[in-house]
Specification:
Layout (H helix, E strand, L loop, with lengths): L2 E5 L4 E8 L2 E9 L1 H5 L6 H23 L8 E7 L3 H18 L3 E5 H7 L3 E2 L4 E2 L7 E6 L4 E8 L2 E7 L5 H12 L5 H9 L24 H13 L7 H30 L3 E5 L6 H14 L2 E4 L9 H14 L18
Parallel strand pairs: 1-4, 4-5, 8-11, 11-12
Antiparallel strand pairs: 1-2, 2-3, 6-7, 8-9, 9-10
Length: 341
Amino acid sequence: MPLLAIETSCDETSVAVVHEGRVLSNVVSSQTKLHEEYGGVVPELAAREHLRNLLPAARMALREASVSADQIDAVAATRGPGLPSALMVGFKAAQAAAFVLGRPFVGIHHHEAHLYSPWLKGQPPVADFAHFQPNVSLIVSGGHTLLVHVRAELDHHLLGSTVDDAAGECFDKAGKLIGLPYPAGPEIDRLAEGGNPRAYDFPRPMIDDPKDDFSFSGLKTSVRYFLRDHPELLDDAQRLRDLCASVQAAIVDVLVTKTIRAAKRLRVGCVTASGGVSCNRSLRQRLAAACARERILLFLAEKSFCTDNAAMIGILAERKLKLRPAATPHDADILPNWALG
């Protein structure tokens, strides 16, 4: 029987229905426009929107899946990490649904779910775990940049993370300095397509550090001082495109270099990438080229599953119930700072 999944860790309200590795529905309600005027996500506003959107999203997900509530066999939700007030809405709603229906409940780690999103393929989406193999996984988003060694299904080890700003945060903050609208990452990607990535030489923080951690605050600061010294650049359309391409190249260089280095060191034949920033065209192209050179298989999450979504929560929950059955107590609490082990 199907599993109902809920994701509300940040500013997307998402509800999905999955069944035996197949995504029957995946409804996502974005709050980007709401937070645009503030230049970032406002936690309390996000929580209020989740309260407003969750029930309509659940009804739509059930309707699209042609499933009734009493046919649901289990319920899952993101337990952490994330914004506490936002997490609380989806997690407690899922617990209540599981309790009322008398079904098992599973609390899912948001980042762990991203690890498995690259295996969702096709239309309708199906989890292709038949081709699963040990890999080094790059999870890159607005709030997190992680490198993870996935040794086997449900067996993973965190290699490194960001020591300050995440890659997506650097994209957005650099874009804000340039004067681009929030979220600035997609806009930098668009403008960079017509720019010269070698026009301006920005630092590649920690690119030569043998450890697997990341740092992007220095790059953001470098962009700030560069714009202080060259304000006229923003009035020239081509130089603006060159700037976006150069900033993007610095971020992507670090991400690709560290990911490939880790894969070679651990002697894995597969790399995966997921998270919102993995939608970036340059990152996808550069990863593909680097993996081809090193004869490493590459699995990229499809763009519809890169950003926060309940489908990946449901797929992982279903997998956990099958491979390592253990329900989460109906009175368990959220874990906003839950670290990926």
